[in-house]
Amino acid sequence: MTETGIICEVKENQILVKPEKSSACFGCLNTECKKEGFLITAENPHNLALKAGLKVELEIPAKYKLLNQAFIAFLPPILGFLTGYLTVRTFFPFFGEGTALFMGLILLFAAACAVYRIRKIKPAESGYKVMRIINRDN
């Protein structure tokens, strides 16, 4: 996946880029950008001569997005549900199906809340890399 953006700040090998239009914009419909602004942290693996104001092309591998973001977001809640459901069915068989489902749902939401809280404290690495400079204006 590629995106374009304008470099806002360069710190050693880490670059802050304001995307022109990010794929994340569709998910929140620009509500986050309007409140706080949206910046992407990117790496400079090709050691390009970057400075603030340059328009650059960013790339993030689809595999990275799938592994680092989708699995982290979906796997813990699914495992939470299975843990709750199977624990009740295995160790407390005298409780009914409804109790097992209820416990599964409780652990599903607990795991989802835990993932949310952890991501608020420690956001996922961006995985973006600056591939090329599009223009040298500015």
Describe the global form: rod-shaped
Query: What is the rounded distance between the termini?
Result: 26 Å
Helix content: 40-55%
Q: Over all CA atoms, what is the radius of gyration?
A: 21 Å
Number of domains: 2
Please provide the ordered H/E string of secondary-structure elements: EEHHEEHHE
The appropriate CATH architecture of the largest domain is Beta Barrel
| CATH homologous group name of the largest domain | Nucleic acid-binding proteins
**CATH class division of the largest domain:** Mainly Beta
User: At the third CATH level, what is the topology name of the largest domain?
Assistant: OB fold (Dihydrolipoamide Acetyltransferase, E2P)
Tell me the major beta sheet. Answer: 5 strands, mixed, barrel
Structural class: alpha+beta
- The total of beta strands comes to 5
Arithmetic mean pLDDT:
82
Low-confidence stretches: none
Counting copies of identical and different chains, the oligomeric state is: single chain
Number of helical runs?
4
- Strands side by side in the biggest sheet: 1-2-3-5-4
- Strand content is 15-25%
